[in-house]
Amino acid sequence: MTRPKVAITMGDPAGVGPEIAIKAVNAPRVREACVPVIVGNAQLLHTLAGRLGLPFKADSAHPDDLAEGFDPEGPTVVDLQTVVIDDIIPGKMSPTCGHAAYDYVRFAIDRTMTGDFDAIATAPISKEAVNAAGIRFPGHTEMLESQTGARDVVMMLYSEQVAVSLVSAHLPLSRVPRTITASRVERVIRLTHANMSLIRGRSPRIAVLGLNPHAGEGGLFGSEEMKDIGPAVESARRSGIQIDGPIPADTAFTPRMLDRYDAHVAMYHDQGLAPFKALSFENGVNITLGIPIIRTSVDHGTAFDIAWKGTASPGSLITAVLLAAKLASNDDL
């Protein structure tokens, strides 16, 4: 079987993205699973690899020459010369680096849409740096939604131990209740079911969390469970999805519940991601659901405090690349 071509965006040049990208493409299991292609800055990557004593033998490709293909035996860097290495201060947020990180993502999306790549795995960006560059996106998910023309995109965090999809993501808590509609909850359930079916190779069992304490306690603490979440769960159940809910969020991630369910649908960002990262911070993967291309990502940020120091773990990015390759090839990890 032909190995899928996975574009690995380098992330913010001043963060840990370049280091973990180098380490990821050096991993034998990554090279076995796919043809890894870093979208970033070749000079920076070679300079950093030399500084950290990391092996890095990679060909460089001009952005206009992708039709010629990639070396299947070694990593390739698509060299977007959007930032000068002398302008980068490791660990320092800057609009220049924010714009470069955005350019890497934009290029990877465009070329995956046209078929030059089979999937994307993204290293972390700084939302602050991207916005300081005048690019008004809260994060990768919103960039993907805008550039692919998708609607109702869903963020899911996945590991072998736990998977969580979010009804709302990068929103102030004050706006969350307005996003909890029966149609939105049901869409998240159905996308979660479809993607977990691919990943697991079987029909998953899903738990849907309530928004309010004790899942509303029969309306005592809120009405969203009875008005929107419950009807969405019932509709999904009638279509054959194995699902329970709404259940109280404070007991949703106990060992017994983790054994019972393949995935959880959470109503807002921290409700789902706080327990997820407590359980799977080193090997979690962010998957964007509801877009016409495959995109995975690390589940952590730029880690400016350890940038360019050689201590960043590539575990999450390696897992993201492997999962992107799996979804692209519909094969086993």
Query: N-to-C terminal Cα separation, in Å?
Result: 14 Å
Give the count of helical stretches: 12
Shape field: globular
Q: How many β-strand runs?
A: 12
Question: How much of the polypeptide forms β-strand, as a percent range?
Answer: 15-25%
Series of secondary-structure elements, N-terminal to C-terminal: EHHEHEEHEHHEEHHEHEHEHEEH
CATH architecture of the largest domain, by name, is 3-Layer(aba) Sandwich
Measured as a percent range, the helix fraction is 25-40%
Please outline the major beta sheet.
Answer: 12 strands, mixed
- What number of domains? 2
In words, what does this structure look like?
This protein is an alpha/beta fold and 333 residues long. The protein folds into 2 domains: 193 residues, Isopropylmalate Dehydrogenase; 139 residues, 3-Layer(aba) Sandwich (Isopropylmalate Dehydrogenase), CATH 3.40.718. Helix 1 packs across helix 12, helix 4 packs across helix 6 and helix 8 crosses helix 9. 40% of the residues lie in helices and 17% in strands. 50% of the residues are buried. It is built from 12 helices and 12 strands. A 12-stranded mixed beta sheet has the order 3-4-2-1-5-12-11-6-7-10-8-9, with helices on both faces.
Explain the layout of strands and helices.
Elements: E1 5-9, H1 17-26, H2 28-33, E2 35-40, H3 42-52, E3 59-61, E4 76-79, H4 95-113, E5 119-122, H5 127-132, H6 140-148, E6 154-158, E7 163-166, H7 176-179, H8 182-200, E8 205-209, H9 224-238, E9 242-247, H10 255-260, E10 263-266, H11 269-280, E11 285-289, E12 295-298, H12 315-329
Parallel strand pairs: 1-2, 1-5, 2-4, 3-4, 5-12, 7-10, 8-9, 8-10
Antiparallel strand pairs: 6-7, 6-11, 11-12
